[in-house]
Write a structure and sequence with these properties.
InterPro entries: RNaseH_sf (IPR036397). The chain has 113 residues and is α+β, with helices and mostly antiparallel strands. It is built from four helices and four strands. The protein has a domain of 74 residues.
Length: 113
């Protein structure tokens, strides 16, 4: 039985993998595996521009884009890009559609991935 004095050692700088995907009512886009171990607004924006948004616009042109409040999603370059590509149709921190963090009724990825 664990006690308050038990501890677990963690390996520092252990290998990581960052994966992105999107869900809609008809399909899954992805998974997209980032080559970088640390994702920032620039690498996230590159993925949106080159991979995600072209597929979304092809298959779901009127999609409402939702993302959580992760730091790469919060960058001004990302929000400007989303404003341009999903005008009044994106939900996330600082977006035109308010998104309450940790709201289990709308965080589909927490349940389906």
């Amino acid at each position: 039985m664990a006690t308050a004095h038990d501890y677990r050692e963690l390996e520092r700088d252990s290998p990581k993998v960052n994966v992105w995907c999107a869900l809609s009512h008809t399909e899954v886009i992805g998974p997209f595996f980032f080559a970088e171990t640390t994702i920032n607004s620039v690498t996230y924006l590159d993925m949106l521009e080159m991979y995600a948004v072209p597929q979304m616009q092809q298959h779901q042109p009127d999609v409402i884009f939702q993302q959580d409040g992760a730091p790469p999603h919060w960058g001004m370059i990302v929000r400007d890009f989303l404003d341009e590509n999903f005008p009044d149709r994106w939900c996330g921190r600082g977006g035109p559609i308010p998104w309450p963090p940790r709201s289990p009724d709308i965080t589909l990825l927490d349940f389906f991935l």
